[in-house]
Amino acid sequence: MKALRLVVLPWVCCTLLAAASLASTFSSAHALEIKTGVLKVEYPALPPVSRYDEVPEDLGFAGAQLGNEDNATTGSFLGHSFALDTRTAAPEAAEAAVKDMVSSGVHTLVLIANGADTERLAKAAGDGVIVFNAAAPDDDLRGEKCLANLLHVAPSRAMLADAVAEFVLWKRWPRWFLIEGSNPADKALGEAYRRAAVKFGAKIVEERVFEDTGGSRRTDSGLVMVQRQIPVFTQDAEEHDVVIAADESDVFAPYLPFHTWTPRPVAGSAGLRPVTFHAAHEAWGATQFQRRFEKLTGRYVRPVDYNTWLAVRVVGEAVTRTGSDDPAALRSYVLGKDFELAAFKGQKVTFRDWDGQMRQPILLTDSRITVSVSPQEGFLHQFSPLDTLGIDRPETSCKAFAQ
Amino acid sequence: MSMFPLSRSILFGSAALTLALGSLPSEAFANKVFVSNERGNTVSVVDSATWEAVAEFPAGNRPRGIGISPDGKHLYVCASDDDAIKVFDTETYEFLWSLPSGPDPELFVVSADGSKIYVSNEDDNLVTVVDTQSKTVEAEVPVGVEPEGMALSPDGKFIINTSETTNMAHFIDSADYKIKHNILVDQRPRYARFTNDGALLFVSSEIGGTVSVISMTGESGPELKTKISFEVPGVLPEWLQPVGMRVTADNKWLFVALGPANRVAVIDVETLEVVKYILTGQRVWQLEFTPGEANLLTTNGNSNDITVIDVASQEAVKSVQVGQQPWGVVVAPD
């Protein structure tokens, strides 16, 4: 750790000048140009249950742009210039887009895509490119399907479920009524909650599946139907302390709070939700981040924007500290013990060297304020409390990260 | 107050003695302590002889950085959400005028002659130089992302700014306002402070959990000498977040506020080792000495109080309730 810094720092100290005015004084060995690609794969989607969740056109790109501006400001003092190449593609055109970006000099690539496409596109990018997963929560992408060139800024379903589980158990609500959707992503999320229950000693006393029958989500009579259907759907459940909703498809979870047969709090996909970030978060200097983001975009930040901002900042930080644009050097720095990054969540974020997953606190929000932040007090770990969230080193099935 | 029952009675003893001696000039002579209350939108005034809060007055929206003119007449307060530095009369607490500060001013330093204020503008990646006489902006210096900490070298040559997301200490030449050096430090540099002789500059990194020690006497300019880390048994390393700092005038002791760890670290400047942790109120943020350095004061944002530390014994001796979320502190000169 010391050795690396001693090598880097004298060079930094000598790079004295604001690059804007004195760029010509940098030798070519110091001047770096880093172009990061951001590819968003577009899928057909139904309108969300809540208008608040309508997807802004620049989702993800906006966060990346802010991250790039942050990097560029820092880089101006060091002779490093940063650029973005943002693209949108349909799933069938995404691979060609990745190859085109790579051939135009992109060696750091941020993906906003589902799990299957993230895997496919990371493979297409090849070993010479570091790929950041900013959206896909699939645990198998960090497990048996893990790829050496794929790092995950987005938290896994296991991390999100564990974040909820720690809070719920801190509250001493050990009896869970798990309601999961019928789509594959919902089932995978339900599985993450089952795993979390076993891990932390909760008991799932009742399980039900809410079938996605493809009915309309917002109709004039919706309220009336919901008010009658949800109580019936949730009646006669075993005595429980909390309802856990696993509804990644956004079909039913927002209807659960207030409508359950037994009056109980809801957590998971509605009620108390685990997120990487949200627009009301103010602690740990986050107000400054919110203001900068809102000034740039004219809207509130979304978790995906935060994820892309973070991915781009990881690239910037690695370039700043190593003075290199070599993907292999950047990857090894990012996965090494010297890497640390401030992320407006009270402690530094780092990467797990066994599966490429970023360690980070998970915010729990009621969609208006930060209710709590996991990991919770009292959940201990021999290395970092952050590793109580998600798949720990001894449990990993990832083999691509040689340790 | 119940935290330090024994020490408190000792302090009361010495305060009583001072009062008995009447008007003899003394280090414990009454000075006004001004504390900015970030959430309360006020400044609290505490009497340093009695350690009683004697006044509280409105100070604009989100008051954070706080300072005083060298003659002690004017109190400067960064009203962050008003995009201005508000100037108050230190006797009457009357609002006098606003100085242009650039947007969202957070921290500033006042030049030795009081003619200039150097302000960090958190939202705009700028350091603004304000002329206190003409009440105008003299210069704007582009710096890294989220500028925060400000320091002035004792010889007045360098204005230091730390940028929290860029993670650098920027060395701005006070003659031409150009950045002459940049040094990378650990994550989220919050505060910067020189030793009295100007030989060392300390930069605290809140998220990195370290204090960078920068030698000002390197061959090619300032250079990073080492980094000081912190360790308190029973406290998670993540909570050891260094923020405000003060160095004694004899350059022997560095005090570092450790934020949510609720402690002030005492560092031997000679060895650069932590020798002691002093328990304070909650979320200890900024520090200031009383004139003569008999006491060190800490603002404690979450317990809404200030802790009074006896510098000689390095013990906390008293806490005084102030307003909502105290942020910065300044003490009127003798």
Task: Describe the structure in your own words.
The complex is a heterodimer of chains A (403) and B (334). With 403 residues, chain A is an alpha/beta fold. Chain A has two domains: 237 residues, Response regulator (Rossmann fold, 3-Layer(aba) Sandwich); 117 residues, 3-Layer(aba) Sandwich (Rossmann fold). Chain A has eleven helices and 14 strands. Chain A has a five-stranded parallel beta sheet, with helices on both faces. A four-stranded parallel beta sheet of chain A has the order 7-6-8-9, covered by helices on one side. In chain A, strands 10-13-14 form a three-stranded antiparallel beta sheet. Chain A is globular. Chain B has one domain: Methylamine Dehydrogenase, Chain H (7 Propeller), CATH 2.130.10.10. A four-stranded antiparallel beta sheet of chain B has the order 3-2-1-28, with no helix packed on it. Chain B has a four-stranded antiparallel beta sheet with strand order 4-5-6-7, with no helix packed on it. The longest helix of chain B has 16 residues. Chains A and B meet through helix 1, helix 3, helix 9 and helix 10 of A and strand 15 of B.
